[in-house]
Amino acid sequence: MSEERVTLFAEILLPLPIPGSFTYRVPYELNMRAKIGQRAVVQFGKSKIMSGLIMSLSTNVPDCNNIKYLLDILDDEPVINENQQKLWKWIASYYMCYLGEVMQAALPSALKLSSESKISLAEDFEVDNANLSDNEYLITEALQIQPQLTITEVSKIIGYKKVMPLIKTMIEKKLIVMHEELQQKYKAKYERYVRLTNTYRDDDKMHELMDNLSKRAYKQLELLMAFLVLGGSADNEVLASELLKKANVASSILNTLVEKDVFETYYKRVSRLKNYKALTDVSSIILTDKQQEAFDEIHKGFDEDKPVLLHGVTASGKTEIYIKLIQEAIDQGKQVLYLLPEIALTEQIINRLKKYFGDKVGVYHSRYDDNERVEIWHQVMNFNSQQSTDNSQQTLSKVKHSKFQIIIGSRSSLFLPFTDLGLIIVDEEHDSSFKQVDPAPRYSARDVAAVMSKMFAARLLLGSATPSFESYHNACQGKYHLVTITERYGGVEMPEIVVDDLRIETRRKTMQANFGSVLVDAMNKTLEEKNQVILFQNRRGFSLRIECDHCNYIPQCINCDVSLTYHKNQNILKCHYCGYMTNVPTECPSCRSTDLKMHGFGTERIEDDLKIVFPQATSSRLDLDTTRTKNSYQYILEQFQNKETDILVGTQMVTKGLDFDSVKVVGILNADNMLTFPDFRAYERSYQLMEQVSGRAGRKGEKGKVIIQTYQPQHPVILNVMSHDYVRFFEEQMPIRRQFNYPPYSRLIMIRLKDVDSMKLNKAAELLSRSLRQVFKENLLGPEYPVVSRVKNQYIKQMIIKVDKNLNINKVKEFIGSTIENFKHDHDFKSVKIQIDVDPN
Ligand code: ADP
Ligand code: ZN
Ligand code: ZN
């Protein structure tokens, strides 16, 4: 805060991909309010108004004239703190991007207002309950007529100057939401219910049915009885999961009764915000001897101020150890950040943590409601001040109540304004989704977490059953403290791995669709025992495409350099890169033959085949296509958890951390297409995927079984998966990395160029690479077309620079940065887009 009469200038950062910040003058009347880290409303360009962040305040008069005044200040208190400014700057410099891009990624959209931002009424808004000011009333009324308004439109109603503060208050009061968030709002939770159809609410009809069933369909009768026992009646519904459990029959029996029009089923929304009181005390977790050893060993690492890498086999109880460590951090009054790779396993982990920590747990994820995200943001920011007020009021009580002291989230949650972070856990640290690919900042959340832990003097724990080579290498070098658990909890044995040689299956003609006889037998056995199966298929439809039998013509995307994928549901061909869709041709456009055949198999095809090969079993599919729509994700997993489905088919999504007790068989349908992927990390990734998906089998009780279908049964990756020997695998692979100077022995910087004009692109790539090659020589690879060389009509060329570990990386980046800046001044190549990716995936 500054005096009233001095002239203040503020450096304002805007969430835009442009260098630097912009100087504005603070109007006198705002001098007393202005603080670093607050949002200010400024005019940018001719007519645009935006909210930016005050990065610094100074009385030094800048040397350019006609400096604009900032229009208003939105916050009473800063929304970001010093730590964050520091972190953002580190990210911008390390990942070679603009600070505005980091801001864009870091702030939830409700904290970034601009004239084009759209608002809508909050879903649960009710006029009667809301206590509205006159202006608020005007806006909500307008939104009832026109469901979306831009901030510019709002300013026409209430005037230009007042608009941003008003919008801000209305967001905080949860009257409105930012529209872009509305489309991908947090998914509500649904449960499946069963009730009688109208026909069978009649007593006579019911008797008749029971008579019938008791003669021929004993299981259906059992289900019907269970329905009645559970209180189901003419006007009473029953929860499907409870019903199946009670009757102890497969869900297909329920489906039969639905088909017979006895029952109908439907989904009802249940409140997710149940009672979040912690139910269980962390002290009730008794660590096993092995876990306790690991726990103590982790502390040794922390005591030496080192990050700890916890390498524990699947189902060794890593999560239980995390919970103990979280409790410690909380007891010390610190904040905890628990990073997870993707929404995939969030739901299970949230439930596990909430059981112990209740509403101390906050979930921060880009798919969640923006209002909730802003609330979490403020709570995290005000963590310290809350504590002190709590303490002064109840000095005797040692319990500090703090909502959201523990944050579970995906990579963007590391941008939350932590003030007193004590522990960062990066679970499944090997997972490639910790890296943001597009847009900039192209950061790795795992690596940023390491930097944060230093800034905050917080503990850092990386956990995985299959660590990334980078982290394991760091551990071998002594940079990280390595802790190992080699046993599953409860002495459960690691699953048995059976390799099925598809060459033999094909020769003997024992394949049924894409399932070898070994897998079919194992599945039949486990389904009979009422256990469950997970099938892993590396890619969603990727190889499911149409091909002409005569001339080998394959339909291609018109915008991208990829073949189109067949989607049976909609009976169309679709591009997975740009979304282009077209009808399935009835004849080959090239040779007019009508012999168009389907090739390969994706997850969707597998699901179809299951219906033929295992007609009694129910299945569902988990991949990008089935989880795009609302609720679908939870749906599928909850159904599987409740044993309403027997088989779960999916892409990598099924490999991640899921903990289902009844899964006894896991099938890897085609190991070969992972192994042949053209990338130096292909083997590492394949090992991780296979070992992780195997880890879903037999987590409790009886030993599980994994069937790997392959044409290369002697492949070294497969042999290592068979023995679950990560360390041997690592030791076998590292010499190859060293030989070709790939990470972790070097660092990579990728430069990607894009343009609609391929000639121009080639020239640009040639020119830029020439200047870079003068310095990097043979360490510059490319420029070359990537596997997919055109996306959304843009041609792509890329080059990779291998940077020796002993070089000064900052100098190297400076050189690359200035070379690219110079290049951008060349008018011939103005349209060429250049992206830099440091430590690419
Ligand atoms: P990981 O994270 O290593 O894959 P989990 O933490 O999910 O393993 O543990 C596997 C299963 O074993 C979970 O269902 C978990 O509740 C149970 N488990 C692990 N350790 C303990 C323990 N000490 N006491 C009770 N249950 C445990
Ligand atoms: Zn043809
Ligand atoms: Zn396309």
For the largest beta-sheet, the strand count, sense and barrel status come to:
7 strands, parallel
Give the count of helical stretches. 27
* Euclidean distance between termini CA atoms: 44 Å
The strand count comes to 34
Mean pLDDT score: 86
Shape: globular
Account of the 3D structure:
The protein is an alpha/beta fold and 841 residues long. 35% of the residues lie in helices and 21% in strands. It is built from 27 helices and 34 strands. Strands 14-15-13-16-17-12-18 form a seven-stranded parallel β-sheet, sandwiched between helices. A six-stranded parallel β-sheet has the order 19-29-28-20-27-26, with helices on both faces. Helix 1 (82-94) crosses helix 2 (99-106), helix 8 (218-229) packs across helix 9 and helix 23 packs parallel to helix 24. It is globular. Residues 181-188, 271-275 and 388-400 have low confidence and may be disordered. Residues 285-288, 291, 312, 314-320, 489, 659, 699 line the site of adenosine-5'-diphosphate (ADP). Adenosine-5'-diphosphate (ADP) binds at residues 285-288, 291, 312, 314-320, 489, 659, 699.
Label this structure with key terms:
841 residues, alpha/beta, seven-stranded parallel β-sheet, six-stranded parallel β-sheet, 27 helices, 21% strand, binds adenosine-5'-diphosphate, binds zinc ion
